[in-house]
Amino acid sequence: MKIPRLPRWTRLLPCAGLLLAGCNMTVLDPKGQIGIDEKNIILIATWLMLLVVVPVIVLVFTFAWKYRASNKSARYEPDWSHSTGIEVVVWLIPCLIILVLGIITWKSSHDLDPYKPIESNVKPVTIEAVALNWKWLFIYPDLGIATVNEIAFPANTPVNFKITSDSIMNSFFIPQLGSQVYAMAGMETKLHLIANENGTFDGMSANYSGGGFSGMKFKAKAVSNYDFEQWVKQVRASSSQLTLADYSELAKPSEKNPVALYAKVDPQLYHGILHKYMDGAGGAIAGNGTSFGPVCTSRNTLGVSQEVSMAAPATPAPGSNS
Fold first, then answer.
1. Which residue, 13, 163, 200, 228, shows the most beta carbons closer than 10 Å to its own?
2. Beta pairing class for 241-242 and 135-140
3. What is the DSSP string of 272-303?
4. Which residues of 263-298 are buried (b: 16+ CB within 10 A; e: fewer)?
5. Is residue 194 in a domain?
6. What is the pTM of this model?
7. Which residues cross the membrane (predicted)?
8. Quick one: 156 and 262 in the same domain?
9. pLDDT tens digit string along 19-45?
């Protein structure tokens, strides 16, 4: 007996399996509350859209089979042009889905606003993140330490990120903790995250920024309070310090930088980077000023009013050429 041959395209199925085996669905495997809430939104939106997609696909094959040329028993109505029942279904269901998605979007846009602090009885950890070519600088202002391409924080503790760039636009993203936020020169964006369990999570730039973009990655470690204290002691034991002169060298473009620890960092470094590209003539939204001039920030959806003052021009940051 002759065995029927399978179509040629079926030979590619094993290759597709190998390609999918390399996928790491980190966004759908969240380890923080923000990431969990965002995952739920993705799943809810997907299921709602499948309410339309699946019936349409089924009906396409059903109609193709029922009204095939060889089926002489199918009803033939060439003059048919309208059905009130069909019109109601094809308009009412999508409208209801859009309405539900709109409500979810409105609520989640405010609940998951990256600028909205996470409610907790635990004191948050503040980290100032600076995107460089092609590495990440992290400053702990409350601890007076800094790192490159590695951060650590206690699990179940809110982490308040203040993010800017000393280069072209980048995007700060820890997929398993949720919410990516852009990093832009002369502008401070904010992000609030929390890890629900201990673990080491991959962080990255999610915005193409040149030749070294693929290696612009870092590790985010959620640890116990004791391990975090030990990590801080390890950083403070480092022989390196991040002065303005050292930063000028660090800011030069480089690729695949190893983790670096700085026992001490200039307390005005982050603010100097933030104001490096400001001359006081722009029409940016300004928050409370510092000795370097007004801070350029972006508005959020919380409706919190901010004092705006561009009266005094920003002075060049220490060590900058502006």
1. 163
2. unpaired
3. HHHTTT--S-S---B-S-BTTBPPBB---SS-
4. bebbebbbbbbbbbbbeeeeebebeebeebbbbbbe
5. yes
6. 0.76
7. 41-65, 86-106
8. yes
9. 555 556 788 899 999 999 999 999 999
